[in-house]
Design a protein that fits this description.
Length: 296
């Protein structure tokens, strides 16, 4: 599919990586649905990009809000070919000094928000054999103090994407993950300005974990991922060898064999869950929740 034909929804599109990725995709001819919390910024960006594009205010922690934004995007664009789940936040401090609400909120936005976005857009992406690009982080490749909830959320995005890829491959849908290190966004600039400890930690990190990349270069890598439907994208690219040796069971070799079986296994499992009528086992705390198709 050419860039001109792509219809792209981006969460967290009001600023930073999301906004710049939207600009670069629009310059290639894609049509954008800009989704996020900052209505004024979204409206201004949509106006900057031109009348073909649309925007919707959306809280990715609220499924109703996500669904309304997706419905509006589909009404304006007529379909979706690409979804970039980019919305994210980062709390400061360790577990001991952080309010639990801040830790939980980080996970709710960064991980649960991605899950909500994918769930709401999966039918449209499946219809067009499209592509998901989910934003993880270099934090998923290593551990460091002060990033407990953030790293957990981003590692969760990584594993969610790896499993999702196997579930949807036989439907012609591709799933990519991007692992940015430090990007010169408002989020990183705030931390560098407000926290001396952040600057100290950044200096002590080994290369390439200490590299700060411009928003423009990061977005260029993400646009390239969209155009190539890449499986993994590292920013900076020097992180790739580190990601490659983490675990064999997330490798293309392992996935090659699993995908062959998934063509049969996934439809069977999906049919059984629909027939059962609920999403969890009877002994689970979530047993009262019915399956999606039963709710429909």
């Amino acid at each position: 599919m050419t860039s001109q034909a792509k219809r792209v929804l981006i969460t967290g599109a009001a600023r930073g990586i999301g906004a710049e990725t939207a600009r670069q995709l629009a310059a290639q001819g894609a049509t954008l649905a800009l989704v996020g919390l900052e209505a004024d910024r979204l409206a201004a960006l949509a106006q900057e990009l031109g009348p073909r594009h649309c925007w919707a205010e959306c809280d990715v922690t609220d499924q109703g809000s996500v669904q309304r934004a997706v419905t509006a995007a589909l009404a304006h664009l007529g379909g979706l070919d690409v979804v970039i789940a980019n919305a994210g936040i980062a709390s400061n401090g360790t577990v001991a000094v952080s309010p639990v609400e801040a830790l939980v909120k980080t996970v709710e936005v960064n991980l649960i928000g991605v899950i909500r976005t994918v769930s709401a857009t999966l039918p449209a992406i499946t219809n067009n054999q499209g592509y998901f690009l989910l934003v993880s982080s270099a934090a998923a490749l290593k551990s460091m103090p002060g990033t407990s909830a953030y790293a957990a959320s981003k590692a969760g995005v990584d594993h969610f994407a790896n499993a999702l890829r196997l579930e949807v491959a036989h439907k012609g849908v591709d799933v990519g993950v991007v692992y940015p290190a430090w990007i010169d966004t408002d989020l990183v600039r705030d931390q560098r300005r407000e926290l001396a400890s952040f600057n100290d930690a950044l200096k002590q990190l080994p290369w390439p974990f200490n590299v700060v990349t411009s928003v423009e270069d990061c977005s260029k890598s993400m646009v390239n991922a969209v155009n190539r439907r890449q499986r993994k994208t590292y920013v900076p690219a020097a992180l790739a060898p580190i990601g490659a040796v983490r675990q064999f069971f997330m490798s293309p070799v392992w996935e090659f064999f699993v995908k062959r079986k998934a063509r049969v296994a996934v439809p069977k499992v999906e049919a059984e869950v629909v027939a059962m009528g609920r999403s969890f086992g009877a002994s689970s705390m979530g047993h009262a929740l019915t399956s999606k198709h039963k709710e429909d």
